[in-house]
Amino acid sequence: MHGKTIITFRHLLAHCSGLAAWRPFYQRIKEIEKGGRVNFMASYGSKEFAYEEIHREKPEAPPATKTIYSDLGFILLGETIEKVSSVALNRYCREKFFEPLGLRATDYIDISQVRSRRLEPVPTCSRRPKCAPRASGCWSARLTTRTHSAMGGVAGHAGLFAPVREVDRIASELIACYAGRSDFVPRKIIREFWTRDATVPGSTWALGWDTPSAEHSSSGHRLSPGAVGHLGFTGTSIWIEPEKEIAISMLTNRVHPKRDNQRSATSAPRFTI
Q1: Alpha-helical segments (H) within the chain
Q2: pLDDT tens-digit profile of 181-216?
């Protein structure tokens, strides 16, 4: 629909699908709930609503012509995993990645489970640190993007929580795959994903990862052009030097105590090592 049939997974991963950066799905879902759909927010229905809205979305640019960092594209990637595997995204990630790597505290927070089990939000999570204090407490409905919370806490673009030691564990495993010491992810695939995509001239994006920009990069000025990394809205950042086998992870609370905190120039600190 609207010329999206030629969009590929590569376009989505490299943020050149032409899809918009974001849409106010949270407000639309909230309005539907106010209109009489009780408990529609953070339900299976609200998640399907967001998917359908993206399916009907008209791209802002033709695919492969412009770089737009798009939440919509990564929401579609999450939907694709669910459709192909026939299981929820959080369960798929748990079975294929988190459990095999021994990650005990890395997971999505399924808000529907919070609701059905009548769990109470708490200010901190000391026993199993899935989350940290952010805007208005610890409950995931207010932690990352509003669209992520409206979709139930499990979405392709946001919602994954992990302590820094487990982020480092993931990075270490990916470095080992890149070097050929592990086959958890085939070496050919990880090297392809960590290579800057050439679809749009001047883009810094690889597949699902960013690379250092020429000026004012959040990676600082000491990492090589071959480094890969990513930022997060809440103030998280990871950068990896594949050849030197160095990984730098930083988890901060930019949105605590308020979401509108703009004290950092980017959504995560800039490395100056």
Answers
A1: 9-13, 25-34, 44-56, 71-85, 89-93, 111-116, 146-150, 164-179, 187-193
A2: 999 999 999 999 999 999 999 999 999 999 999 888
